[in-house]
Structures are given as structure tokens and as C-alpha cells.
Amino acid sequence: MSLPPFICGAALLFWGWQSGNLLIAAPLALALEAPRWLRLRFALDAADYARIADLCTVFFVGLAVMLAIDRGVAHGVIGAFRWLPAVLAPILLAQRLGEGGRVPLTALFRYLRKQKARHPELQVPMVDTGGVFVVLCVVAAGVGNATSQAYYAGAVLLAAWALFATRPRHARLSAWVVLFGAGVGLGYAGHVGMSQLQSWIGGLIADWQFERAASDLSRSVTDIGTLGRLKERDTILARVYGAPRDVVRAHLLHRASYNAYIGTTWIGRRAQREELQAQEGGATWTLDDGARQGKIGLAVRVERRRTALALPPGVTRLTGLAATEVSRDGLGLVQAVVEGDWIQFDAEFGEGIANYEPPLPEDRTLPFGERAAFLRIAGELGLPGLPPAEAVRRVMRHLSGYSYSLWRDSPPPAGVTPLADFMTRTKSGHCEYFAAAAAILLRAAGVPTRYATGYAVMEYSDLEKAYVVRARHAHAWTRAWVGGRWIDLDPTPPDWFAEESSRLAPLWEQVLDFFRWAAYRWSQRGEFQASDAWWAVLAVLVVILAWRLLRGKRVTRGAKDAAPALRDYPGKDSEFYELAKSLPPREPGEALSAWLLRVAPGRYDEALRLHQRYRFDPRGLSEGERARLREVCLSR
């Protein structure tokens, strides 16, 4: 089966049209079809074809690696596959400029080359790569494409062109048209259906991810009561830039707050969610109209498409935030729908904590399991009846006598909760103990409170000239309603950060931080764009390479030999063909076995079996079998 003329060039132009690379596809298509008019051919052997195929493979792998580094693994592989027709075009061009018009199969597969080297008698099929090239052009044109109707129409036209030219000559044209039309209709239904199915599944996944993100952030499962050492991860999650005065004021980056404590889990209840509207080109988001008191720059690592932003208290406006959607709730959670691994933006903040809902009933409720112990402690401290500001001072003073620890080696006594045990016996724990204890103790004094989580900005990096926020810098504190507004209280002893740094910082952290910084800086570079000079250098290298490969291999044909040479194939010298000429002719479409059964039952079954092995078995025939084929066919 041979392809119709010019279909390879047309497929390449179709790829260039759909992928936006028409300026590259057009000269390549012209080069692929030019051998039809050229008399010049090259005496290329199997080694030459193998070199060309290997060079195309190396170029494709290099392109995939470069794009993967530039765009990420998934987008890099897809981007490289879109360039596959241009990368493989030299193989088809070499085939058309070669004497035989076909390529040995060993050139395309290194495994077959090894087998040929081990078994020199192995017959190597000569193949036409044009059909595979056309299919690759159609597939690559659809990679990363919106699969529009124009794409489907072009694919159908190319398929009709190829199939019509190779259809069985005895088949009726009307039957072929009906069957092809049915295939086109079913294909279009599948084309549209798969697109809709993909969109539907993508929507379900997106909704599930959004819901999961929201549900994850609606509760904070604490480590209160957990035995062993905590907070040992040193992964960098954010970088903070700004004047020291502003960074000090924004040293607590708030992520989410909670108002109901159940077991050892804090839950955010009845928080109203609000969608924000973008301003000034879609990268500015206003949360409050208050006056700006400070500003910091943030680079935040994106964990999921809808990510929760860790922001300074009293944030009023976000600028330079390239997000498609930003929302917030009344407890202070701000989420943004963003793309990429890291996002950069500026956060402006003012005085106090604005735009948070005033106290809800949950902000005053004492947890059932902690009620008795904390009411008793509140009474011992004389908290009931005190003004909120005085109650806050007394609670903070009381907790300042406790110590910070990341280690707990024994469970609380029977019948005592871990938090009550912290307040009455151990008086030592990490930030979650201090924040939860302060929130519940102030509620026992009648002060509405919330449990806040986020990160502490404490570590300055001389390498990055910025403050870095690590996973182990996760922190919890308390928010209290005092004087008609929410204020932040951090009851954890101030030496907690120094203690963590001295105990938890790995020995090789500085070395690892260098590689983290290098990876971050690499991720923030602009996307690689090949200039005209790069394309010119590539073209010169291709010309030099072609000259080195083809030098001394020219075979100039005369005018009578301008047509392509007859293509050779295994078993062409089989005597079975002479035998077939001496027998009655075959019917159109009749199989060889059925034909022999009709014209010479049982006489030439062995000849047919040996002939087909000679034609199609890669191992061919032994010398004795080859002689037997000749004997059977000539003894008619």
C-alpha cells in the first residue's frame, strides 16, 4: 500500500496551521515533496539511516528536557510532542532522497540493530515511514489544541485522501462513501462526547479540589495530646520582603481562624464567604478601605490551585496578585485561585484587624470537655467580671510562667484532658497548647476569642536578602475581642523560636537552603524564547550536518530514471511468482490460500507455506528450505 502524492506535505501544513508553526511547516513540507521533481539521489546505507534517526531522537529528548525545565515536566513533555513532526521530518526526507525510497526497520529501533548484529542472516524489512508521519502530524496538531471543528474537518479530509487512494479497486464507490461517512459521523460524535466528558470530569475534579480545600481549612486538627517530637520540617513555604519596621509589624502571617473546639480539633463555623472584585488590570484586590500603615512583599508557595494566603493582620489591599478569583470569609481566611508553583504579590496593611465578623455565639462558647477545669482556673485567677483588657493582661501574665516544649513523653492522667493537664500539671507545651488555653480561659472570663493559625516571620536569610518562612514556623495564637475590635495575642513564650532553631535546624540546612534558593530563582525566570539568531544558528548546523552525512553519496539519475526506483522487499525473488503466472488468475480480493484451493487443490500448499515464510518471517528460510521452495515451484 502506497500513500497518495503530496499527502505528507499536506499533513505537515495542517500541523503547522493548527499548532501555530506554519512558517516552519511550509519550508519543511516543500522539502519533503521536492524529491518528486529532483533527479538527485543518495546512496544511503543502513548505518546512514540509523545515524539520522538517532540524531532526531537525541534532538527530541533534548527538546523535551529543555521544555520540562522551562515549563515543568507535564507541560514540557506535551510541548515536545507538539514538535514531533518537525523533529522526525529528516527521517522521511532521507527516505525520499535515498535510492530505494524506503528505510530499513533497524534504523528506527536500536533493538533490531543489535539483533541484526548478532544474527547477520536476519532479513531486515524496508518500510515506508510516510503513513506513520501523516498520523503523527494529525495527532501532534491536536495536542494542546482546543480540538475545534476546523481540526476535526482537517483530520477527516486527510483520512479521506489517504483511504480513498488505497481503497480496494473492486469495491463500489457508493459503498465506500457510505461507510466512510458513517465513520466520520461516529467519529464526530465521539470527538464531541469525549470533549464534553473531559470537561465534565475536569469540573468534578475542580469542584472536589475546591471543596476539599475549603473543608481542610474549615478545621485545624491540633497536635494537642500527641506524644513525641513535633514540627521538624524545614521546607521553605514563603519569602517575605520589606522594610524591617514593616516586617516586625507583620511578623504573624494569618492563614485561618476557628471558633469551636471539639476534642482536639478547632472548627470554623458560620463564617460568611465573599467574592472580591479585581481592580486595575485584574491584579489588585481591595479588602478594606482603611489607610495603609505598612507594606510587605510576599512570595508564596502554591500547594493547590485554590490556595489559602498567609497575610499580615489588618491587610487592606493585595497588589500584583495574578489570580482569577479571590475570596475571603468572616474569620479572616483569604483564598486565591492561582496557577504556577510560586506566586508573588505585595500586601498592604493598616491598623488593627479589619473586615472580620464581630463575635458570633461560637466565639463565647466553652467546650464541654474543658468547661469545668477552665471555669475553676478562671475563678482562681479572679477573671470573671474583669474588663476585657484587664482579663487579657492577667491571662497573658499567668501563661508567661509556663515553658515551651516540643516534646511530650506521657499521656495525661485518666479523666483529664490534655489541655487541662497542660494548665494544671505539666505547664509545658507548644504553641497550640498556649493558643487554645488562652482562648478558652478568656472565654471563661466572658471575652470572645478565636484560635488563629498561620506562620511566624522570624528568620532572616542573608543569602536571599529576605525573611524565609518554613513549614516548622507554623504557629498558633489567640484573637480576642477587646474594645470593639479583634486583637492578636501570642501567649507562647517569646523564646520558642530560638529553642526550635537550636534543636530542629538540620546540620546541612544552609547547604539545602542554597539549592532551595537556586530552584526558586530558576522557577521565577522568564520563559525561554528562541530568537531569530538561535533559529539561524540551528539552520546552519543542520546544513553542516546534512553535508557531512551526504558527502560522497550522490547518485545522479538520468531523465528516464527520474521516477522513484522500484521498491525492494524480502522474498521478491521467490519462484512462487512464476508458478502463479502458470495457473488460472485470481479473482479480485481472493486470498492466495482460497485461490490455490480452487485452481489446484492440495498441490501447492507446501509452496505457499514456504513462500509466505520467505516473504514475512524475519528469520527467513534456511538454505535447505530455500532450495525446497525452488524445487516445489519449478516442478510443475
In short:
The protein is of the alpha+beta class. It has 21 helices and 27 strands.
Describe this structure in words.
The protein has 636 residues and is α+β, with helices and mostly antiparallel strands. The protein has four domains: 7-166 and 541-560, no CATH class; 170-212; 226-505, no CATH class; 576-634, no CATH class. Helix content is 46%, strand content 17%. The protein has 21 helices and 27 strands. It has an eight-stranded antiparallel sheet with strand order 11-12-15-18-13-6-24-23. A four-stranded antiparallel sheet has the order 7-22-25-26. A four-stranded antiparallel sheet has the order 10-16-17-14, covered by helices on one side. Strand 8 (260-262) and strand 9 form a beta hairpin. Helix 5 packs antiparallel against helix 7 (130-142) and helix 20 packs across helix 21 (623-634). The longest helix is centred in the first third of the chain and has 45 residues, at 173-217. It is elongated and about 120 Å long. Residues 202-215 and 558-567 have low confidence and may be disordered.
